Amino acid sequence: MESPRNRRYFAKKKVCRFCTEPLEIDYKNVDLMSRFISDRKKIVPRRNSGLCAFHQRQLAIAIKRTRYMALLPYTVLH
Amino acid sequence: MALKPNYYETLYVVRPDLKEDELSKIQSKLPEFIEAHEGEVMKSDKWAERSLAYEILDHKRGVFYILIFKALPTVTRDIEKHLRFYNTDVLRFMTVKITEEVAVREKNAAESSAAESEVAETPPAAETAKAPEAPAEPAPTEEPKSETVETAADQPETPQEVTPEETAAQPQEQETPIEEPTEPQAAEAETEVQSAPETAEEEGGKE
Fold first, then answer.
1. DSSP-assigned letters across all residues of B144-191
2. ipTM over 0.95
3. In angstroms, rounded to a whole number, what is the distance separating the alpha carbons of residues B101 and B167?
4. How many structural domains comprise chain A?
5. Can you give the residue range of the structural domain that contains B76?
6. Shortest alpha-carbon distance between residue B124 and chain A (Å)
């Protein structure tokens, strides 16, 4: 049984960027990392980032490293 | 009990107002630690000077230096201990294990940029390409510095990978977007247990 809601979901489904593009997850690549944080500087969840589980985990680690090196903020309150 | 050498990358941030001699005091020790245990310094460079995302010890800006090396795991302890000793000057430091592939690529990039600066400047400094400089020598450190800053500013996308020398060296990286499926992340994560199954597959049906 297909509800309209499901159909909308499947139309939106993304493929993991790091699987399809020759990109590397690197904590020093600040511009790339900043694309995966929200406006409140939270890490974007997988349903929004569209990444596969493997790369989402790598990305989360990388973003935390970036934050530690003061390349990205932890919050907007700094 | 065979300890094998690994490839590491240390990124550290120093105060922007740090004097040259104080900086060299900090940096000169680092290759010693590495080479004392048959390690190899593959790259030692200024990475960038940029404003920090948050203040550290009331500093709003910081100068980032990068050190890529091959050494036994115990060496990282010495290096971190040394950096921690200067904890008012070194604001942050972090050592990350990297794959050999990445390390070699960075080394080649560093060498070619060093070679380029040699051609531009002084031919006699021929060794600097081979042995990434001890910070005592001002000339080789100076050149790559400005270069990395430039590339970081020009190409915010991928500051490391697409330095001009490197594209010249290995053009196939640009031409074929789908290269052989290297998995550089697999080994990169330091102590990751890669066991978590794909549990999160109930695709966000309930948002």
1. HHHHHHHHHHH--S-TTTT-HHHHHH-THHHH-SS-S---HHHHHSTT
2. no
3. 16
4. 1
5. 6-137+151-167
6. 33
Instruction: Give CA–CA dist B45/B133, Å, rounded.
Output: 9
* Other beta carbons less than 10 A from residue A18's beta carbon: 19
Estimate to the nearest angstrom the gap between the alpha carbon of B158 and the chain centroid. 14
In a domain, B94, yes or no: yes
Q: A21 to chain B nearest CA, in Å?
A: 7
Residue A33 at interface with chain B, using a CB cutoff of 8 Å:
no
Q: What CATH number does residue B56 fall under?
A: 3.30.70.60
Which tokens go with B204?
Answer: 């966000």
Chain B CB within 8 Å of residue A73 CB? yes
Distance CA B52, CA B156 (A): 16
Tell me phi and psi for residue B168, to 5 degrees.
-65, -40
Å from B25 to nearest chain A CA?
A: 22
- Specify the number of domains making up chain B: 1
Q: Residue B144: inside a domain, yes or no?
A: no
Q: How many CB atoms lie within 10 A of CB B200?
A: 14
Sign of CA dihedral B70, B74, B75, B79: positive
pLDDT in tens, B122-166: 544 444 444 444 444 444 434 443 433 333 344 444 444 444 444
Q: How far apart are CA B66 and CA B104, in angstroms?
A: 15
Q: Residue A19's domain spans which residues?
A: 15-68
Q: Domain containing A64 — which CATH number?
A: 4.10.640.10
Residue B13 main-chain phi, psi, to 5 deg: -115, 130
Residues of B in contact with A54 (CB under 8 A): 185
Q: Quick check: A6 and B156 CB within 8 A?
A: no
B114-131, pLDDT tens digit by residue?
777 666 655 444 444 444
